[in-house]
Design goal:
The protein has a seven-stranded mixed beta sheet, with helices on both faces. The protein is globular. It is built from three helices and seven strands; from the N terminus they run E-H-E-E-E-H-E-H-E-E. The longest helix is centred in the middle third of the chain and has 14 residues. It has a single domain, classed as Gcn5-related N-acetyltransferase (GNAT) (Aminopeptidase, 3-Layer(aba) Sandwich). The protein is about 25% helix and about 30% strand. A hairpin with an 8-residue loop joins strand 6 and strand 7. With about 140 residues, the chain is α+β, with helices and mostly antiparallel strands.
């Protein structure tokens, strides 16, 4: 199940990443099946996706995975469909602390590539800036 209420997305990402809310914050929260008919709680969210810093050609993406079972191919497709198909962007960017090996592995597995490294720019190590380009994204359907 998917929730897209902006206030819920902002609350979730502030709670999990201490991310400040921004006027252009958009996103989706995927609730685990067993919590589908219960009141929304932060722990019932399996995957959270947030997008911000839109400039007309790019945006930033933020992902929190609380239950790997919820990170399905459909969720990954939807994560890229929104910025590339619905918004028509050319690239999306994410930044990950170099010590967060699990997140780096996930980003690489879905197709992000490192484009820049800010030495000592992360909370615990370097800050990796990773990019996914529309024309390189294997998760979206292309019109013929």
């Amino acid at each position: 199940m998917l929730f897209t209420t902006r206030s819920l997305v902002a609350e979730f990402f502030h709670d999990r990443l201490r991310m400040p809310s921004s006027g252009d914050l958009r996103g989706a929260l995927y609730v685990r099946e067993e919590f589908r008919h219960t009141p929304m709680q932060m722990d019932s969210i399996g995957v959270g996706l947030a997008y911000n810093n839109f400039n007309g050609r790019t945006c930033a993406i933020h992902i929190v995975v609380q239950d790997k079972r919820c990170l399905t191919r459909q969720v990954v497709r939807e994560a890229f469909d929104y910025p590339f198909i619905q918004c028509g962007l050319t690239a999306i960017i994410t930044s990950i602390d170099s010590k967060n090996e699990e997140s780096i592995e996930l980003a690489r597995r879905v197709g992000f590539r490192e484009v820049y490294r800010v030495r000592e720019g992360g909370t615990d190590g370097d800050l990796l800036v990773m990019e996914m380009r529309h024309d390189e994204c294997r998760w979206i359907k292309r019109s013929q």
